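lol ok so funny story. i was supposed to be doing the assay writeup but got distracted and ended up predicting the structure for this chain instead. priorities right. anyway since i did it might as well share w the group, maybe its usefull for someone
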Amino acid sequence: MACVLLLQGAVACSPEPGRNGGADAGSLGGASTVSGPASSVSSGGGANGSTTAAVTSGSVGAGGVGGASATGVSVSSGWSAISSSSSSTHASGAVGMIANSAATTGAVDEPRPTVTAEPGTVLVRVDPGVRYQAFEGWGTSLCWWANHVGGWSAEARDAVVEAVVDPVAGLGYNIFRYNIGGGENPAHEHMDQHREMPGFQNSDGSWAWESDANQRAILLSIAERGSDVIFEAFSNSPPYWMTVSGCASGSDNGANNLKPDAYGDFADYLTEVVLHYRDEYGIVFRTLEPLNEPYADWWRANGSQEGCHFDPSSQEALLLQVAAELADKGLTGTSLSAADENSMDDALMNLRSFDASTVALLGQLNVHSYAGTLRAELYELAASLGLRLWQSESGPLGQDISDDTEAALFMAGRIIEDLRELKPVAWLDWQSGDPSRSWASFTLNDAQQSYAPLKRFYMHAGFSRYIRPGATFVEVDHPDMVAAVSPGESALTLVIRNADPSTSKGFTFDLTALPTVAVSGELYRTSRTEDLELQPPVDIEAYRVVLDVPAYSVSTFVIPMP
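and the output, tada:
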């Protein structure tokens, strides 16, 4: 299908043989004005005291959380609540459209009723007084899909960028990871299409700044669409001529592949690219990550993509070199991040092994949530070290996915589990467009230079359009749900997953802990037959809501707090 972004949350598509169609995304209806006391709850991710959320279509507002300062406050649920601040000053996207509603259920100081479960439902309590991470936003890595789409016409590639960044009709992503390619040996032809990323330095030491035109075109297109976008630069492999094997996909045996005498050269290479993008294009990468799944031993010569193993001591050696180069080149706007391990358990183990002087160089901890179970433990360590924590890459690795809806439901579960237990301040997908449908939010058609949204697009949008940068996650006592208050305290968003393929689930929501609520909320649903479709208004009576969540669906429930 060829798709065009429209206003008010719609995606218009024309059929394409062999592709699945998709209904338009639901748009938020208009709402009338209310009167009533403003929320008395103070937000760790508030919008500088603002109580009104404004829609800024096409703007991508990012929270600017610095090094996390965790208080380690203990709460009854067993999580540890944190308080951090955000520089986000607006709530772009759909949540801002419901700042007004027909009426309020009650005032902040009125007595609250006792909420009991409707027969046949599970009672779920939402408590915005128990707060967790202040959120920076959602994002994706560029590299492969940008290397692909960046070769299209400017109009066609910009349409895909809009689908990724627009907070009303698209995904509303505001964080992007730019891949500094190593560049493969020109005598090697073994990487998959679009995965061989061009490098910037030749083996004779000369620079080739014209390289990587496709990915750069997407990067610059994104940069034009908002001043609050967060960029990170990352590396999968050193240039082939710095490696032991002479190949950018790994060593012959999965061991360290950077030559022992090339650590300084590699650090110089990465920081020169960061310097060039700052001076030539005005792109300041907030962080530089020189490692990607470095502890993994599957990075082998003649593989399908770039990769390089570094044991923990070698990781530290490289981080020290890169930190020194950043300082020497005056790149004060860029700090180090590490180490993007494939497994959260490996990340925890390796970080614990780092010397304190190495940890002190880091501004951010990145981890992938493909494998491992020690989410809470990694969060606690990052918080104790004062490190901002990102879930920087995920996808259905190793999963047997049968169709688009199953891919969406699996990834919704991954997102919820990460947000609840790992508590990252940002959640990033790996590839928005990928030849494998289960890994992608949209398909890409080279012949027509067009894209078509998949179920994962609508599932992701159910999170990212309604939980915006600057929002704060709060307590909801059910493992298949997350809740967040908007930056301006004007709304609370619940995302609810029912992974049962055949049975609906009933829930009674206790909202008595909210400062105030409107008389109705807005509900959106993605299922086998629905693509983020707006449902009839949901009544809120006496701080109580009863919802029936259909089988195999992801629902987004937005509750105005006027």
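Residues 1-102 have pLDDT under 50 and may be disordered. The longest helix spans residues 263-281.
back to the writeup now i swear
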